[in-house]
Design a protein that fits this description.
- Its cofactor is pyridoxal 5'-phosphate.
- InterPro entries: Glutamate_decarboxylase, PyrdxlP-dep_de-COase, PyrdxlP-dep_Trfase, PyrdxlP-dep_Trfase_major.
- GO terms for molecular function: aromatic-L-amino-acid decarboxylase activity; glutamate decarboxylase activity; pyridoxal phosphate binding.
- By secondary structure, the protein is α/β, with parallel strands linked by helices.
- The protein folds into three domains: 41 residues, no CATH class; 253 residues, Aspartate Aminotransferase, domain 2, CATH 3.40.640.10; 100 residues, Aspartate Aminotransferase, domain 1.
- 37% of the residues lie in helices and 15% in strands.
- The chain is built from twelve helices and 13 strands.
- Helix 5 packs across helix 6.
- It is globular.
- Bound molecules: pyridoxal-5'-phosphate.
- Pyridoxal-5'-phosphate binds next to helix 5.
C-alpha cells in the first residue's frame, strides 16, 4: 500500500468527461489504481485513528484469505455449502463463548451490530405482540442513557417508544432499579450494554436481570433482556470469565456483538445470537427458494461478501481462546497505563479508565479545552473524538481513546507526550 500512498494526485474525471455520468472511456488498471489511491491520500493512519472501535489491521495471511473470498456471496448457501457450515460453526463457537448451549443457540451474521440490534429489536417486538395477543398497542423499549444510536433507530423506525433512563453525574449506566422502574406491560425488552460507546463501561447485566425477576414476581411483568455486547462480546469471555452477563442469566434471550470490533475482523460483520430457537420470533424468517435451495433467512439485509465470516472463523482457529485472551489483555493493560499517565498530568478526570472495554474516556479540568487538545493531537497524526454526554450531562465534554490490538507501548508514550506538551502550554 506504501507505493499507492505515493501515487500522484490526479483529477479522475473532469466535467467534460462526465457527460454520461461516468468517464466516457476507461484507463489501464494500473493507472486507475494509482489515480484512486491518489484521491484517497492523506487523513489519519488507521492505527492512529483512536476514534474507531473497528479493526484497523489484520495479518498478511488474513488479507490473503479475505481477498480469496471477497467475491463469494454469503447468501448463496446452496452454491457454497461449506461457507454456510463455516457460518454455523461460528455461531456454535460464539454461543459457547457466551455460555449458551451450543447445540441450541441460533444466530445470524449481520453487517454489524446495528443490523443485529435492529433484528433483535424486531424479534422482541414480535414476541411481545404474540405474548400480548395484540391487545396492547404502545410498545416501549427500556435502555440506559449511553445506549447506541442503533437502538434509537430501531425505536423510531418500528414505532416503539424509547424509554431512556436518566444519566447520573459520573455514571451513564443503566442499573437494575432504574430499569425495573421504567418497565410496564408495554415493555418489549430491556437493553443492557457491555460496554458503553461513550465511556467504555459495562452495565450491570446480572443486577438488571435480578431486578426484572423481582418485577416479575411482584407484578407479573415478565421482561426479556437483550445484551448489546457490540465491543464487550469478544472481550468479556476472555478477560472477565467470572462476570455473569451472558446466557448464564436465564432472562437474557439474545446477545449481539460486532465481529469487526473486538472480534478482529475488518469492517462488515456483526453477530446476533438467541439462546434457543424459541426466543427468535418465527416472524423474522423469510423463505427464499430462488437461489437453488429452499431456505429460511433471518437477516434484514441480503447479498454481501462472505469474506468477513471467513475471517471470523480464521481468527477463532488462528488465535484460539489463549490468543484472544492475550490480545485483549494487552489492549486493556495499555489502556489502563494510558489512563494512569493522563490522570497523572492532574488536568483530567477519568470517566472510563480502560478496565472494562479498553477505552479511556476523559473530561478536562478547567481551563483545559478538549477540542483544542484534539486539534493539537490531530496535528501530530492522532484522531480522537470529543463529544458531549446525553441531555442530563450535556455540559460535560468527553474525549475518548479506543485502544485496539495495533496500539503499542510506544504509542502510549507518544500520545502521552503530545498531551503533556499541550497541557504545559495552558495555565
Ligand atoms: C454499544 C454499541 N452498540 C452498537 C454499535 C453499532 O455497531 P456497528 O458499528 O457494528 O453497527 C456500537 C458501535 O460502536 C456500540 O458501541
Amino acid at each position: 500500500m506504501a507505493a499507492l500512498a505515493n501515487a500522484a494526485e490526479e483529477p479522475l474525471c473532469s466535467s467534460t468527461h462526465l457527460r454520461r455520468g461516468i468517464p466516457d472511456f476507461g484507463m489501464d488498471a494500473d493507472a486507475a489504481l494509482n489515480a484512486v489511491a491518489g484521491r484517497l491520500r492523506g487523513g489519519c493512519r488507521p492505527e492512529r485513528n483512536l476514534a474507531t472501535f473497528l479493526t484497523t489491521s489484520i495479518e498478511p495471511e488474513a488479507q490473503r484469505l479475505y481477498r480469496a473470498y471477497l467475491n463469494y456471496n454469503l447468501v448463496d448457501r446452496e452454491q457454497y455449502p461449506a461457507m454456510d457450515e463455516l457460518l454455523r460453526e461460528c455461531v456454535r463457537m460464539i454461543g459457547a463463548l457466551w455460555q449458551g448451549d451450543s447445540r441450541r443457540v441460533v444466530g445470524s451474521a449481520t453487517t454489524g451490530s446495528s443490523e443485529a440490534a435492529l433484528l433483535a429489536g424486531v424479534s422482541l417486538l414480535r414476541s411481545w405482540q404474540e405474548r400480548t395477543r395484540g391487545e396492547l398497542s404502545r410498545p416501549n423499549l427500556v435502555m440506559g442513557a449511553g445506549a447506541h444510536a442503533c437502538w434509537k433507530k430501531f425505536c423510531r423506525h418500528w414505532g416503539v417508544e424509547a424509554r431512556i433512563a436518566s444519566a447520573r453525574a459520573g455514571r451513564l449506566a443503566l442499573d437494575g432499579t432504574a430499569a425495573a422502574d421504567l418497565c410496564d406491560e408495554g415493555t418489549i425488552g430491556v437493553i443492557g450494554i457491555l460496554g458503553s460507546t461513550l465511556d467504555g463501561r459495562y452495565e450491570p447485566i446480572a443486577e438488571i436481570a435480578a431486578e426484572l425477576d423481582r418485577l416479575d414476581q411482584q407484578r407479573g411483568i415478565d421482561v426479556p433482556v437483550h445484551v448489546d455486547a457490540a465491543s464487550g462480546g469478544f472481550i468479556a469471555p476472555f478477560l472477565d470469565a467470572d462476570l455473569r452477563w451472558d446466557f448464564r442469566i436465564p432472562r437474557v434471550v439474545s446477545i449481539n456483538a460486532s465481529g469487526h470490533k473486538s472480534g478482529m475482523v475488518p469492517p462488515g460483520l456483526g453477530w446476533l445470537l438467541w439462546r434457543d430457537r424459541g426466543r427468535r420470533s418465527p416472524e423474522l424468517g423469510i423463505r427464499i427458494n430462488y437461489l437453488g435451495g429452499d431456505d429460511t433467512h433471518y437477516e434484514l439485509s441480503f447479498s454481501r461478501s462472505a469474506a468477513p465470516v471467513v475471517l471470523q472463523y480464521y481468527n477463532f482457529v488462528r488465535f484460539g481462546f489463549a490468543g484472544f485472551h492475550a490480545v485483549h489483555a494487552r489492549s486493556r493493560s495499555l489502556a489502563r497505563e494510558l489512563a494512569v499517565r493522563l490522570l497523572g498530568t492532574g488536568r483530567f478526570r477519568l470517566l472510563g479508565d480502560g478496565s472494562e472495554l479498553p477505552v479511556v474516556a476523559l473530561a478536562a479540568e478547567p481551563p483545559i479545552k478538549l477540542r483544542r487538545l484534539a486539534m493539537h493531537l490531530a496535528d501530530r497524526g492522532w484522531a480522537v473524538p470529543v463529544y458531549t454526554l446525553p441531555p442530563e450531562l450535556d455540559d460535560v465534554e468527553v474525549m475518548r481513546v479506543v485502544v485496539r490490538s495495533d496500539f503499542t507501548p510506544e504509542a502510549v508514550e507518544d500520545f502521552t507526550a503530545a498531551v503533556e506538551e499541550f497541557v504545559s502550554t495552558v495555565n
